[in-house]
Amino acid sequence: MRSNVQKILALLLAALLLFGCLPLAAAQEQPFQTLQKGSRGEDVLCMKRRLRELDYFSTDDLNDKFNDYAVKALKAFQKKNGLEADGIFDEETARALYADTALSAAAPTPLPPPRSLSVPWPERDGEGYLAGDGEFWYENDEDGVWAYLTQNLQIVIAKMADESIPLEWFETDIHMRDGETFRSVATDPEHPGTRFRYPFDIATDNKLVLGFSDDFYGHRMKHKQTVGIVIRNGEVLSQETHSKQLHGLPNLDMLAQFPDGSLKAYGAADITAGELLEMGVTNVFCFGPVLLSGGEISPLLEEHYQSKSPRQALGMIEPGHYFLLSVQGRMKSSEGCGLPYMARLMKERGVVEALNLDGGNTMALVFRGRMLNRLNARKYKKYVRSVTSLIGVGVSESALPASEE
Question: Would the pLDDT of 20 be above 90?
């Protein structure tokens, strides 16, 4: 009987080793041996088989050498699973690799929960707005929290970070009522697409509490490109667009703003400028692609827009409640992200309609005259791209001139 049990255990152990589910050192109850580039043996082969099972290798032709391919695969696994991506197979990495909860290469990056913020709020009414007259603002650069409050406007900005990616971003929660709305401000309204200026200067000149980069339509006008459907303050600035769905950047999808506070995302060929005007549209921001429509992530994102860059997207949770996502990128501390990640995060936050706005070095988030985001690993504001217009929220004399930063 005992010999039969021993045979069964031996067969189970062999199966575990064959499919890479248990390191050899652990199976033999020996002290754990750290593996790294140059290591060889059954433990290395076991590690590589498990990585293949999780799709970090694309071939079944594996050997027992800890080579450059193994280092690359292991680093990818470590990064995906929130470990230090050093390419060394230590005990912590081994536990994560052989755990049932190990994330495969194809698994979506886990989404972080919202931050719990500590803001010394003044007295507020039942909806969270300022209970009395005047305005309240709060700025805590060290903690990464900024807030603004009046009787009709709430703005809360939280800086977030995930060092395992690495990624840094800002989540801006906006509530508006009783006439407060998104506004489009231009450097030269009589001549759209002219007079390029830095975003923080435009925000300051217009005394915006919050200003952020829009669809960069002025650049397309200047360079005589297809501009897309652009409407500002009920006036059509451009109506030439694509006749079918494309997947470039921009693909000229749109986010339409209506007087009742609702935002609605449309594909470039879904609707005409005339039809939008008949519906009473106020502004149409045109860049794309659509990230969310009707609460569902655009299927276009399943195959495209994976590249990592600085990004910015505006969305609506419900009329009067909005969410702006601003992602830093091209820096050591933040590599940027693809649009599928943006869409998933915005949906997780409750957004039902959302459009990708212009990103890269155009991306700017300006609060009370100060640009909060950084670009290209340089902190100086001059490295942001000049533009001809911004989307703004709120007007206040408290906005600081750029020269007083």
Answer: no
pTM of the model: 0.81
What is the C-alpha to C-alpha distance for residues 213 and 196, in angstroms, rounded to an integer? 13
- Which pLDDT score, from 0 to 100, does residue 376 have? 61
Per-residue b/e over 323-346, b at no fewer than 16 CB within 10 Å?
bbbbbbbbbeebbbbbbbbbbbbb
Token code pair at residue 196:
């390029």
Tokens of 154: 């709430």
Q: What is the pLDDT of residue 19?
A: 45
Tell how strand 311-318 and strand 321-327 pair up.
antiparallel
Report the range of poorest mean pLDDT among 24-33, 73-82, 131-140, 234-243.
24-33
pLDDT value at 150 more than 70 = yes
Q: Are 294 and 352 in contact (CB under 8 A)?
A: yes
Q: Within 10 A of 349 (CB to CB), how many other CB atoms are there?
A: 16
Q: What does the angle CA 252 – CA 209 – CA 261 come to, to the nearest 5 degrees?
A: 55
260-267 — which CB contacts under 8 Å span 24+ positions? Answer: 260/319, 261/176, 261/181, 261/319, 261/320, 262/316, 262/319, 262/353, 263/314, 263/315, 263/316, 263/322, 263/353, 264/293, 264/353, 265/290, 265/291, 265/292, 265/293, 265/353, 265/354, 265/355, 266/290, 266/293
